[in-house]
Amino acid sequence: MIPDVENELRLQGYLNRPIDPDLDLVEEILRLKKEKQAVILAHYYQDSDIQDIADYIGDSLGLSQEAARTDARIIVFAGVHFMAEVAKIICPDKKVLLPDLRAGCSLADSAPAEEFRRFREAHPDHVVISYINCSAEVKALSDIICTSSNAEKIIQSVPPEKPIIFAPDKNLGKYLMKKTGRQMLLWNGSCMVHELFSLEKITRLKMRYPDAKLIAHPECEEAILNIADFVGSTTALLRFVGKDSVKTYIVATESGILHQMEKTYPEKTFIPAPPENSCACNNCPHMKLNTLEKLYLCLFYEQPEIVLDEELRLKAYRPLARMLEISAS
Ligand code: 13P
Ligand code: SF4
Question: Percent helix, strand, coil in the chain (nearest 5)?
């Protein structure tokens, strides 16, 4: 999602603001948070120093549910743009801040709203289920939103005779077709981080650590999911490790989740699944745009803020509210 010009300009001034090098950032963030009645919601893919200061850390579903239930005046969303946008759609009366407004998402970008509108119009009889990793405009064109932790339930809520469009993640879509036995028309989108894991290198790792289990996020490609011992959302992966008895895991998702895994289960070993090249491709460049410094500035100046047109917000709210309702039942 490309931020609008007004916000972009605000961002430019905001990013150049200096910080006193002697400031204890953690202490200041905690002080400002209290003074301003703010809550910090963070995704597992954020840097560990941000996770450690957050009031709530979760997956996309958990974060939207937490946004819906908080009574804070300000929500500081340590995640990417579509996630902060979801918080604003659900809580229009709260100030929602994103430390770096440029923190986008390759998956959300793979579904431009105008192309998606034409696709939807070409299949008027289909129910449109969109993965939460999409823009507010795409949400507004959808019937129900889902996340990786509730997608099966959402699909099962659609009467079997109704054809379904699933967007924008083709890997998650394919995985869900197998799991539910439901044919769906898939949008051709994907996440740049989850598409880069190397099957060959993972297979070699599995041979080197024969007792290790491979756990994977469903945004990974089919070949990786086919050899995984467990597939689930970030929260589901974390919970699986807690219930499972083995000691070593190869983790095929963004590397930020390893922090919570290592913190919660220090007796276990977690090996990040290797990507194709020798790059740090399993770090999401969008998520990593947020830093502790930007989080501090964002709380101090109460900028950059997520601003949404009310008509668009209301249209995007309807499918999100359906998701929250179905998830609660
Ligand atoms: P979940 O946290 O819902 O598993 O999704 C991961 C993701 O893609 C965040 O961008
Ligand atoms: Fe988007 Fe992938 Fe980054 Fe998640 S990990 S924010 S899906 S680009």
Answer: 45, 15, 40
CATH code at 107-190+314-328: 3.40.50.10800
Q: Report whether residue 60 contacts ligand 1, using a CB cutoff of 6 Å.
A: yes
Residue 321: pLDDT over 80: yes
Q: Quickly count: other Cβ atoms within 10 Å of residue 322's Cβ.
A: 18
Domain residues of the chain, as ranges?
A: 6-104+286-307, 107-190+314-328, 199-272
Residues 45 and 287 sit within 8 Å (Cβ to Cβ): yes
The residue nearest atom 7 of ligand 1, judged by CA position, is 60
Nearest-ligand number for the alpha carbon of 282? 2
- CATH fold of 199-272: Rossmann fold (3.40.50)
Q: Are 327 and 138 in contact (CB under 8 A)?
A: no
Predicted structure pTM score: 0.94
Residue 1 has pLDDT above 50, yes or no: no
**Residue 266: exposure state from Cβ atoms within 10 A (0-12, 13-18, ≥19):** exposed
